[in-house]
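User: tokens in, sequence out, please.
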């Protein structure tokens, strides 16, 4: 499963604001273009392993600062959904 984790983390750590907006739409995440760009900029500047609970908590706190706590909660739900079965 390490390969899957590497692929997902690579995408998270290299995402653009436009891609983030595209991925947010199907999940009904309401973020502005400005917020998406700021979040993407943060993700590209700080390599994050979303499969590591501690790193993900720090990431969600940063997203809350950028886009608000409700958006951060929703993003965290997605991260947990994507990672919960992959930790085994």
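Assistant: Sequence out:
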């Amino acid at each position: 499963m390490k390969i899957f984790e590497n692929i997902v983390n690579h995408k998270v750590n290299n995402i653009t604001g436009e891609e983030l907006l595209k991925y947010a739409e199907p999940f009904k995440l309401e973020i502005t273009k400005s917020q998406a760009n700021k979040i993407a900029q943060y993700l590209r500047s700080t390599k994050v392993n979303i499969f590591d609970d501690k790193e993900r908590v720090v990431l969600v706190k940063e997203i809350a600062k950028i886009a608000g706590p409700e958006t951060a909660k929703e993003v965290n739900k997605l991260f947990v959904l994507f990672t919960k079965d992959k930790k085994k």
